[in-house]
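Hi there, hope your week has been kind to you so far. Would you mind checking whether the tokens look sensible for this chain? I owe you a coffee for this, so here goes:
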Amino acid sequence: MKVFALLVLFIFSSCSSAPKLAKDEFAIIEINPNKWTAYTKQSLEQLQGIYDLSSILITNKIYIQSRVPPRPFPELTLNTRFAQNPNKLLSLLIHAELYWWERNNREKFDQARLTLSKVYPKLKKNRLTLLLICYLEYEALDHYLGKKDAISTIRLKMKEDRAYPWFYEEVLSQQKRFEKVIEHYNLSPIYDFKIL
């Protein structure tokens, strides 16, 4: 009976809508190469060497381009703005990859958005998605950097970059609320809540 239960757990934990990528299946491509794209690429490679990023790498290519806004679609493209700040660069990468995670888990995100819409009735669908992405980004940073550095990285983004201040503040002040929603719908690429 124990063997059967373990087999079922293994099968369920193996089922994922987004495949995990090995290091050799991952490419960082510079567009219009310059010293900043090279530096950003080197920083990303160092992050990949330090952390096991396989849980959050959904795309198999990351493009780096100077003087463009970062974007997840149609190809994940990062700019060179955080080349000299590895924690913020990691945060940017995670944030962009999470939009691919959301695309691959649309039904679960729809359910989570519906739950959150009861708490935030004035927020539109894309803003509810942003709340979930911001929380998952914080959760991943906590996993990789630890709570203190995760919070300081988020606060730095809010202060220096004015990146989604209300959303990040809400995530930091209402962590338990978001954690419950993420766990309930098994939305974390970092943690597999099915086996809890």
Observations:
- Residues 105-195 form one domain.
- The CA atoms of residues 65 and 127 lie 26 Å apart.
